[in-house]
Design a protein that fits this description.
single chain, mainly alpha, Serine Threonine Protein Phosphatase 5, Tetratricopeptide repeat
Length: about 150
């Protein structure tokens, strides 16, 4: 059915009518992607690469709260998948970094509550691996959010 729908869409693009196949009434989106059976270093490298691309976009254009927040939540699902201790440590480190970035982007976009949530996630991931530096960094950013919110209260 889905193949016929693609053929129908293609024929509409070419000749204006669905010649090759029948157009479906509606095509469902992909939904949530399945998790892998095991997390490996390639997954961790993908998170690191994505984080740097999002960081660059945020520095260049500002904002990016929706994109970075969504990515952080989706990659956070990987913690439910089995992994070796070494991969888990790297995964948590990358997720802490990504959530700290998401917190900053949310704060920068005026979304204080999601910013706090992402900073809390960053602290949790850092705590799992005993990364005191990352915990302190996320807590410092939480303090900046609170300081800004308090200073704008009447």
């Amino acid at each position: 059915m889905l193949r016929r729908d693609v053929l129908a869409k293609g024929s509409i693009a070419l000749v204006g009518v669905p010649v090759l196949g029948k157009l479906l009434a509606s095509s469902a989106g992909p939904g949530e992607l399945e998790l892998p059976s095991q997390v490996g270093l390639a997954d961790v490298a993908e998170i690191a690469n994505t984080t740097e691309q999002l960081r660059s976009a945020a520095r260049t254009r500002g904002g990016q709260a929706r994109a970075v927040s969504a990515v952080a939540v989706q990659y956070g699902r990987l913690t439910r998948v089995p992994a070796t201790d070494a991969v888990t440590a790297r995964l948590c480190r990358q997720l802490a970094d990504l959530n700290e970035l998401a917190g900053w982007c949310c704060f920068d976009s005026g979304h204080d509550r999601p910013a706090r949530w992402h900073y809390r996630e960053a602290v949790d991931f850092a705590q799992r691996i005993g990364d005191n530096y990352r915990m302190a960094s996320a807590i410092r950013f939480m303090g900046i959010v609170d300081g800004e919110v308090i200073s704008t209260m009447p």
